[in-house]
Amino acid sequence: MTDETIGFVGLGIMGLPMAKNLVDAGYRVVGHNRSDEPVEELVEHGGEAGGSPAGVAEESDVVLLCLPDSPDVENVVLGEGEEPDPVIDGLREGTTLVDHSTISPTVAERVAERLADEGVTALDAPISGGEEGAIEGTLSIMVGGDEEALEEVRDVLDVMGETVTHCGPSGAGQTTKACNQIVVAAQMVGVSEALVFADNAGADLEAVVDAISGGAAGCWTLDNRAPDMIHGDFDPGFFAEYQYKDLRIATDAGEAFGSPMPQTALAHELYKTMVQNGMGRDDNSGVMQVLEMMAGGEARVDG
């Protein structure tokens, strides 16, 4: 059992299992979420309810966040929106805030600067690995900010992540996550395109997946998503609407830094089509359905 209290704001598909793992590791965990059900589930698991973002911060030595987008972080942390009790109102000098949300690098930098004025250290620490990684505690955590501050909270992050990497100053974690999402989207779209083509050409989809997984095309998506994709199973491990949002962050950053992103721009449009067609809460591998719509038929294994 550790004496540290960990606050956790944002108990969604990723945040709740991460918070549960901290409880299991012996931490006192105080949580908050916009809806009550995840908080109740955390309490049943041994955590506590914080009542509000500020209430969580008041109780905590380290505050963790896992929120959907940049405006949510600005609202919940800084009160730049409708949140009446933002995190900043409850933070004590010397507290560390670790933001696992995927947001704009420039917003991450601004939040860190604002909290530094209050004597609070902020680390941007977006995550990758999907719901499975959150449940198993095997996430990849990409950290931007002060390296000494990271070392002080590394034991906490090690509970949730198999890989914790310091990527540079504030904002560098978010830049690294954008790189991650660029590659993830390339995999998802590439695998989808290959499977729809294979089906149209009359190949055995299961055999195709087995064959190319063992060659140079082998990747996480083929190993972890393709077996479900060819059976039409798109239950979410990571929402397509979040992938769409992450690609918007990446393309905006690419434009700001003068980096061409032709593949990412195309993937962004395909995920936009998913969201516009009511598939935003499907898994991000569900982009295959857009390729199927374009092809005029489903690429599926019988049975």
UniProtKB/TrEMBL annotation:
PROSITE patterns: 3_HYDROXYISOBUT_DH
Molecular function via GO: NAD binding; NADP binding; oxidoreductase activity
Top-level division of the source organism's lineage: Archaea
Sequence ranges assigned to domain 3-hydroxyisobutyrate dehydrogenase-like NAD-binding in this UniProt record: 171-291
InterPro entries for this protein: 3-OH-isobutyrate_DH-rel_CS, 6-PGluconate_DH-like_C_sf, 6PGD_dom2, 6PGDH_NADP-bd, HIBADH-like_NADP-bd, HIBADH-related, NAD(P)-bd_dom_sf
Keywords: NAD, Oxidoreductase
Occurrences of domain 6-phosphogluconate dehydrogenase NADP-binding (ranges): 5-168
Keyword Cell membrane annotated: no
SUPFAM superfamilies: 6-phosphogluconate dehydrogenase C-terminal domain-like, NAD(P)-binding Rossmann-fold domains
Family listed: Belongs to the HIBADH-related family.
Alphabetized PANTHER family for the sequence: 3-HYDROXYISOBUTYRATE DEHYDROGENASE-LIKE 1, MITOCHONDRIAL-RELATED (PTHR43060:SF15)
Name of the protein in question: NAD(P)-dependent oxidoreductase
Lineage, broadest ranks: Archaea, Methanobacteriati, Methanobacteriota, Stenosarchaea group, Halobacteria
